[in-house]
Amino acid sequence: MNAIRLARTVTKCYSMRSYSMAPCEILELLEAGYQRLAESDSQSLLKKHLTKSIFDKLKTKVTPSYCSTLLDCIQSGLCNHDSAVGIYAPDPEAYKTFADIFDPIISDIHKGFGKANKHPASCYGYGADFPNLDPEQKYVVSTRVRCARSIQDFPFNPCLSEEDYRNLECMISKVLLTFCHEHSGKYLPLKGMDKEVQKKLIDNHYLFKEGDRFLQAANASRFWPTGRGIFMNRDRTFMVWVNEEDHIRVISMERGGDLGRAYERMIIGLESLAFSLKFSCDKRLGNLTFCPSNLGNTIRASVHIRLPHIGKDKAKLEELAGKHNLQVRGTSGEHSEAKDGVYDISNKRRMGLTEYQTIGEMHKGISALIEAECRESSKK
Ligand SMILES: Nc1ncnc2c1ncn2[C@@H]1O[C@H](COP(=O)(O)OP(=O)(O)OP(=O)(O)O)[C@@H](O)[C@H]1O
Predict the structure, then answer these.
(1) Where ATP is bound, by residue (predicted)?
(2) With a 6 A CB cut-off, is 144 part of the ligand 1 pocket?
(3) Are the C-beta atoms of residues 351 and 286 closer than 8 Å to each other?
(4) Is 300 in the pocket of ligand 1 (CB under 6 A)?
(5) Homologous superfamily in CATH for domain 127-379
(6) What ipTM does this complex have?
(7) Does any ligand 1 atom lie closer than 6 A to the CB of residue 245?
(8) Between the CA atoms of 327, 331, 334 and 336, what dihedral angle is there, to the nearest 10 degrees?
(9) Fewer beta carbons below 10 Å: N end or C end of the chain?
C-alpha cells in the first residue's frame, strides 16, 4: 500500500480516536512525507514554512477534541507538491494546536496579517454605496459574491462522520427552506441528482465541481455525495452550497456588473442563516474555514470580465490586477483557463479588513481595470 493510501486508512476513524499524541504509524507517514517534500521542488507555502524545527515541534501534537494530527493538516500538501498552499484545518482547534505552521502561512497568504493582528468585527454597510461597475454591459459578463461559514460544534470535512454530514445537511436545509421573497427556493441534494442536471448546473457556474484532488487528498470528500447539495432561489441569483469545501458557502450572482446589488443579496441571505445557526469564529482569525486562504471575512467577490486589450497578455493582466489586490482565475474557477477571453477577477484580501472594505477594494480595483481597458482601446 503506498504512503498516501495508507494515510487515508489511518486517518479514517476520527470518532474512534482517543490519543494524547500522534501514534507511531502517523509519525512514520509524516517523516516519510516530510522527507519527500523537502527533496522536491515544490513551491507550496507548506514547503516554504515547514522548517525541520517546526515539523519536529508539531509532529506529535493532536487537537484536544478531535485528536487531529499534523498529518491531517498537511497530507494534501504532502501528496500534491504542486499545491499553492498545501495545508487545511481538519477542525477549528487545529489553528491553535498547529499555530506554529498555520500562522506564518496565514501571514504569507493574507499579506501582513501577523501574530499581533486581529481580524475586525463584521461591518456590512450598504450595497447601494457601490454603483454598477459597467452599466452598459460592455465588459462585465457576470458578478458573483460568496462567503463561507462553518457551523459551531462541528469539525471540518476530514473529521465529519457520515451521520454528521446528514445532520448538517438537515440543519442547514431546514433553515434555508424558511427563506422568503427573493431568497426563497429549493434544496437539491447531490445524492440522487440526475447526472445531466448536475452537469448543467456546473456548466452554468451554479454548482461546485467534484473530484478536486487537493480536497480529496485532504480527506474532504469522504462519503460523497452524502450530505452535499445546493439551495437555489427561483431566479438563480442566490445559492447556498452545503458541505462542499466548507459547511456553508453563501453565493449571490447575476448577469452584469452590479456588485453592490449582488453583495447586498448575499448579506441578507447570510444574516437570515445567522439568525438560526451559530457559526465558528475566532477572536483573532475571524470566521473559521477549512482552508486558511478563506479566513477572516471569507468573501470572494468576482467578476467574469472581458478585457480584450489589457487581457491579451495574461502575465501583464496579473501584474496590473495585483497592484489593486485582485486575483485572476480562468472562466471555470480555480485551476481553469480563460474561455473566449473571459477572466474571473476577484479580491485577494479578506483578512484584517471588514466585508465592506473588501467589497470597496474590489469595486475600486475593477473600476481601474475597466478604465485601463478603455484607455488602451482608445489608443488603437
Ligand atoms: N463572476 C462570476 N460569474 C459567473 N460565475 C462565476 C463568477 N465567479 C466565479 N464563478 C463560477 O463559480 C464557480 C466556483 O468557482 P471557484 O471554485 O473558482 O470559486 P469559489 O466558489 O469562490 O471557491 P474557491 O475559492 O474555494 O475555489 C465556477 O463555476 C466559476 O466559474
Answers:
(1) 142-146, 205, 249, 300-304, 329-334
(2) yes
(3) yes
(4) yes
(5) Glutamine synthetase/guanido kinase, catalytic domain (3.30.590.10)
(6) 0.98
(7) yes
(8) -120
(9) C
| Nearest C-alpha neighbor of 345 from the set 324, 329, 325, 364 | 329
Q: Is 353 in the pocket of ligand 1 (CB under 6 A)?
A: no
Cα–Cα distance measured from residue 147 to residue 131, given in angstroms and rounded to the nearest whole number: 21
Q: Is 205 in the pocket of ligand 1 (CB under 6 A)?
A: yes
Find the 333 Cα to ligand 1 centroid distance in Å. 5
Say whether 255 counts as a known binding-site residue. Answer: no
Q: Grid coordinates representing 322? A: 495585483
CB 75 within 8 A of CB 22: no
Neighbouring-strand partners of residue 239: 232, 251
What is the whole-number distance in angstroms between the Cα of residue 205 and the centre of ligand 1? Answer: 7
Q: Is the CB of 328 under 6 A from ligand 1?
A: no
CATH assignment of 3-109, given 1.10.135.10, 2.60.40.420, 3.60.150.10, 3.20.20.70? 1.10.135.10
Compute the distance from residue 115 Cα to the ligand 1 centre, in Å.
30
Q: Ligand 1, atom 26: nearest CA belongs to which residue?
A: 245
pTM for the model: 0.94
Closest ligand 1 atom to residue 302 Cα is 1
Chain region(s) in the chain for CATH 3.30.590.10: 127-379
- Is 146 annotated to bind a ligand? Reply is yes
Per-residue pLDDT of the chain (380 residues; tens, 9 = 90+): 344 444 444 444 566 678 889 999 999 999 999 999 999 999 999 999 999 999 999 999 999 999 999 999 999 999 999 999 999 999 999 999 999 999 999 999 999 899 999 999 999 999 999 999 999 999 999 999 999 999 999 999 999 999 999 999 999 999 999 999 999 999 999 999 999 999 999 999 999 999 999 999 999 999 999 999 999 999 999 999 999 999 999 999 999 999 999 999 999 999 999 999 999 999 999 999 999 999 999 999 999 999 999 988 889 999 999 999 999 998 777 777 778 889 999 999 999 999 999 999 999 999 999 999 999 888 86
Residue 195 neighbours by CB under 8 Å, 6+ apart: none
Which ligand 1 atom sits closest to the C-alpha of 241? 21
